[in-house]
Amino acid sequence: MTIALVLAFPAIVLIGLATPRQAGWLFRASPSRCRIYGWRLSGWLLLIASLGLVISGDDRTRQIIGWVGTVSVIALSVALVFSGLTQRRKS
Questions:
Q1: Rounded to 5 degrees, what are φ and ψ at 83?
Q2: Minimum mean pLDDT among 2-16, 35-49, 55-69, 77-91: which range?
Q3: Cβ(69)–Cβ(41) under 8 Å?
Q4: Mind spelling out the 3-state secondary structure of the chain?
Q5: Which of 20, 29, 50, 86 could form a disulfide bond with 25, CB atoms 3.0-4.6 angstroms apart?
Q6: Which of 24-28, 73-77, 87-91 has the lowest mean pLDDT?
Q7: What pLDDT is stored for residue 26 in this prediction?
Q8: CA separation, residue 20 to residues 14, 16, 26, 44, 79 (Å)
């Protein structure tokens, strides 16, 4: 379960970076579409690998519920950090 969550964190960060508006605010220059699609694809593949590790273990039901809850907290924290960084860059 721990390895699955370690994979989920960079997955959520990459998916967040793949938002063109967010990436433009964070890097001050819009990344190319190829780079954005690469981040998005990498993020989804890592997230799928993370879920695959959770599903392959014992007591799948509890692990899936724990994984969904933890990934939600990770996504919320990444969104808050990105929002804070963009507010700091805008001012």
A1: -65, -40
A2: 77-91
A3: no
A4: CHHHHHHHHHHHHHHHHCCHHHHHHHHCCCCCHHHHHHHHHHHHHHHHHHHHHHHCCCCHHHHHHHHHHHHHHHHHHHHHHHHHHHHHHHC
A5: 86
A6: 87-91
A7: 75
A8: 12, 9, 10, 16, 14
How many other CB atoms are there within 10 angstroms of residue 61's CB atom? 7
Radius of gyration of the chain (CA): 15
Higher-confidence residue: 27 or 75? Answer: 75
Q: Which amino acid is at 8?
A: A
Phi and psi angles of residue 57, each rounded to the nearest 5 degrees, phi first: -85, 180
Residue 45 structure tokens: 């593949």
Residue 62 and residue 60: Cα distance in Å, rounded? 6
Q: What is the mean pLDDT of the chain?
A: 88
The b/e string for 69-85 (b: 16+ C-beta within 10 A; e otherwise) is: ebbeebbeebeeebeee
